[in-house]
Amino acid sequence: MLNDATQGNKSILKSPDGDLTLWASHAEVHGKRIRYEPEPNKNVVGYWTEVDDWMHWDFELPRPGLYEVEVQYGCGKNAGGSQVRLRIKDSELEWTVRDTGHFQQMIYQTLGQMDLGAGPHRMELRAKSKANVAVMDVRKIVFRRIEVSD
User: Fold this and answer.
1) Residue-by-residue DSSP string for 88-148
2) CB contact set of 117 (below 8 Å; sequence gap of 6+)
């Protein structure tokens, strides 16, 4: 019965290499108000109240491949709706920030997949629009190398 349900599907496997996590504490911030908030209950890039403020991370991937990208963020009550873009070179993922009930109430959101080469990269996180008082608070971005089995 299970074989009938999965026939023709290709399974996605996590790489044994593990995940690459880009923490808020390692981000470089650019702009008027945006900053790293080191308090233990926060540990986020916050005060993202200006649409032109942005952040970036420089990192290195040990192996090329298809990576699933996930973000952990929080967004205040009635403050959702901002449009955000994550970019590495010519690859982009865009999404709409959801209201999580509070800026320190974090959720994980899978953004999509990016095909990336091995070596150094710069990832930029920018707002395309700001819907309310602030874009969001970002705690981390995770890259998971995935493989499609034959």
Assistant:
1) ETTEEEEEEPPP-BEEEEEEEEEEEEEEE-SEEEEEEEEEEE--SS-S-EEEEEEEEEEEE
2) 61, 64
Instruction: Give yes or no for a contact between 83 and 129, defined as CB atoms under 8 angstroms apart.
Output: yes
Phi/psi-derived region of residue 34, left when phi > 0, alpha when psi is between -120 and 50, beta in every other case: beta
Q: Report yes or no on whether pTM surpasses 0.90.
A: no
**Across-strand partners of 37?**
44
- DSSP string covering 31-97: SSS-EEE--TTT-EEE---STT-EEEEEEEESS-EEEEEEEEEEEBTT----EEEEEETTEEEEEEP
* pLDDT level of residue 63 (50, 70, 90 thresholds): confident
Report which of residues 113 and 148 the model is more confident about: 113
13 pLDDT more than 50: no
* pLDDT at residue 149 tops 70: no
